[in-house]
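Field guide to reading this record: the first block holds the primary sequence, the second block holds the structure written as discrete tokens, and the final block holds curator observations. Each block starts with its own label. This record concerns Cyclin-like f-box protein, catalogued under organism Daldinia eschscholtzii.

BLOCK 1 — SEQUENCE
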Amino acid sequence: MLTVRSLSLLLALGALSLVDAAPQNRGNRGGRNRNGQGATRGGGQRQKQATAFQQAQQIPQGVSTATDGSTILDMTANVNGLPLRFKVSAPADQFTADSGVDGGAQTAGAAGDLGLNVLLHGDGGQSFFDFPNQAVQNGLAGVAVLAPDPNLFWGGGSGLDRTDGVAHAQAVADLVADVMPQVLAFNSSRVSFTGVSGGSLLLSGFLMPGHMSQFAGDGKESQVLLNCGGLEPQVDVADADAAALAATRVHFQSTQQELTLLQPAIPAAIQAYEKIAASQGLDATAIGALQTVDNSPNGGHCEFDEKDFVSGVQLMADSFSAVVQGGDGNLAGTNVNVLNPVVGNEDLTFSGAS
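BLOCK 2 — STRUCTURE
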């Protein structure tokens, strides 16, 4: 049975000290020791270092204020035996009376007008703590979920091998279906997703092929923004999910200097999802309108603003409506248009590697 456990509602929020963004291989962390052993101390003794997940638990949860003045609730739910910490940003009066938010006026399970934009961070959790999709944007309340993994990897495992992908995807789907209605009134027919790096691997590899019928088609509207990551489906695609994917707006966004291991993986994912749409009877024009791709920014992994990971991810969060909700396709504050149909643009060309 799903339970919601609200931890102490404190106002202070911190920042995680050891975070990475790119898909990582366990045991090879760019010089960071992730095997649970800390530096050698006096007398030759070694002291165990807390995992990234354990460090995250030291950061207070609770209620704070979003950039648009709305309310952020940061709490943890036990979903299928996994501790899923999540943040949701919405007007206070849209939270339930039992959520712990001052001004929460809704009853559990009540329908609301707001949809959701659920963000899955990259390896290490940076974007969960930054919460770039906070605030209500074009009718969507921002949600970010923290991976229930020692290294804060969505799907567990390492690199492109996400060994816990099935369980993590199921937990995210159940969080939206069973936990979110207990804390927020929202429109369950308007649930969209944003992936960042490793989060994009979980979305494209597991959640989209295994659960999309829950979120798209049959009158339900969903968009997926896959930033700096992509996988071919790692699970069988049921007929209902294939039909839903043919009604899901999907954008693949990368950069010119993407990570070496992702340079073949993202085009393979593009081709796989194009094939799914074609199997549902969509022609090239319809597929091109539904699925788009771009890797024009001359930056490294997730550096969509050609400057930095954090600001690059923020740029894409600010551009969500323009890119996948029927906007002009220009990245926020720029004249860079990223809406290229996947048809004919599947084989991305990269200029280097980050």
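BLOCK 3 — OBSERVATIONS
Residues 63-341 form a domain with the Rossmann fold fold (CATH 3.40.50.1820).
Confidence is low (pLDDT under 50) at residues 1-19, 27-45.
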